[in-house]
Amino acid sequence: MAPDRDIIRGHVPLEPPERLLRTVGAWEGEAGRDWLKALPGLVEEYLARWELTPERVQHPGGHISMVVLVRQADGTPAALKVGMVTSQTREEHAALAHWSGLGAVRLLRDDPAGSAMLLERLHADVSLRSLPDAKAMLEACGVLRRLWVAPAEGHPFASVADHTCRLAEHLRERREQPWAADARPLADEALAALERLTESAPAAPVLLHGDFHHGNVLAGDRMPWLAIDPKPLVGDPGFDLAWLAQDRLDTLVAMPAPQAAARRRIATLADALDVDRDRLRDWTLFRAVEAGLWSLSVGDREDGELALEFAAWL
After folding, report:
1. Which residues have a Cβ under 8 Å from the Cβ of 21 and sit 6 or more positions away?
2. Span 294-307, average pLDDT
3. Is the pLDDT of residue 265 over 50?
4. What is the predicted pLDDT for the residue at 10?
5. According to the model, what pLDDT value does residue 7 have?
6. Do the Cβ atoms of 16 and 40 come closer than 8 Å?
C-alpha cells in the first residue's frame, strides 16, 4: 500500500520558492512551466521512495532546482534536490560522484533520470559571500584546487570546446539584435578572444565545476567549504576561473579605479592557481560578454549592463 502523503510530508508545504517560479518560467518557457506544475508531486514521490521526512523547503533556493531539507530514516540530516534536467545539469550527479566529497558536497543517493539527488546537509545560509572579498577568493582557490582533477576514462561530460562553440553561436545571434547595438564592439572582442583560446588547448584538461562563484560554495561540517550546483565540463581551468573572476561585481564597482582593480584580480587569481594570465583575461572577457548579452536577452538589464561594463574594463 502506498504511504499516506500527509505522513510523508509531515504537513510541510512543498511549494516551489518564488525565485524558482520566476527564473524557470522566464528561462525555460512552456517546458519549464509544465515542469513546475509537476514539481510538488515529484518531490513527494522521492520523499516516499527514499523514506525521507521533510523539515522545510530551502529559500530562496536554486534557480532551476528545489531543495528540501530532510531527515533520513535513521534521523541523519540531508538535503533532497530535485532540478529541471537541462544540457548543463544533466551530469551534475556524475561530477559529484567523481569528486566523492573532495571539495564538493557529498552525493548520498541519486536518480539521474528524474534529476533527483540526496545530498549531505551543508549550512545553506553560509556561503563564501559571508566572508570579505579577499578571504573569500583565497578560500575559493583552495576549493578549486581540489575540484580540478582528471576525469575518468569514458566520462560523460561535455568539453569546454564544444560548450563554448555553442555559446559563441548564441553570442553571434544576440550581437545582431537591435538592443545589442552598443555592445557589438565588445561582442567582437569576445569572439576574437575565444578564437585565440581555441588555437591552443591546455595539455591536461580537467573536470571543471562550470558555474563556480562564491554563492556556490557553502560551509560544511566535514570540510570548511564545499562546492554545490556544478554544471560540469572538461577542459581548460581558465574557463572555471573566469566565472570566479567576475564575482561580486558590485564590490569592484565601488572601488577606486575599478578598471585597475579588475585587472589586479585577474592577475592574482591566475598566479594563485598557476593559470596563464592572458588566457584567463581572454576567458573572462568571453564569459562576461556572453553572460551580459544573455542577461539582456531575458530582460535582466541591470546584470547585463554590469557584466558588459566589467568586460570593457579588461
Report:
1. 36
2. 93
3. yes
4. 55
5. 40
6. yes
| CA distances, 289 to each of 171, 230, 269, 286 (Å) | 8, 21, 19, 5
Active site residues: 211
Residue 303 grid cell: 546584470
| Spatial contact of 244 and 269, defined as CB atoms under 8 Å apart | yes
60 upstream amide cis, omega within 30 of 0: yes
The residue behind cell 511549494 is 15
**Mean pLDDT of all residues in 234-254:** 93
Q: How many Å apart are CA 255 and CA 261, to the nearest integer?
A: 7
Of the candidates 108, 100, 66, 103, the one whose C-alpha atom is nearest the C-alpha of residue 83 is: 66
pTM across the whole model:
0.91
Structural element, H or E, at residue 185: helix 184-198
CATH code of 49's domain = 3.30.200.20
Q: Which residue has the cell 558588459?
A: 308
Spatial separation of the C-alpha atoms in residues 234 and 152, rounded to whole Å: 11
C-alpha cell recorded at residue 51: 523514506
Torsion (CA) 238, 240, 246, 251 in degrees, nearest 10: -120
How far is residue 41's CA from residue 63's CA, in Å, rounded to a whole number?
19
Q: Which of 121, 149, 170 is the last residue of a domain?
A: 121
Comparing CA positions, the residue from 156, 163, 190 lying closest to residue 174 is: 190
In terms of domains, do 100 and 172 share one? no
Residue 114: is its pLDDT beyond 80? Answer: no
- Look at residue 3 and tell me whether its pLDDT is greater than 70: no
Residue 204 amino acid letter: A
* Best CA proximity match to 240, nearest among 155, 117, 157: 157
Distances 210 to 13, 15, 29, 188 between C-alpha atoms, Å: 32, 28, 23, 23
Do 184 and 114 have their domain in common? no
The residue type of 248 is R
Residue span of the structural domain in which 28 resides:
5-121
d(CA 88, CA 209): 11
Q: State pLDDT tens for residues 168-223.
A: 999 999 999 999 999 999 999 999 999 999 998 766 899 999 999 999 999 999 99
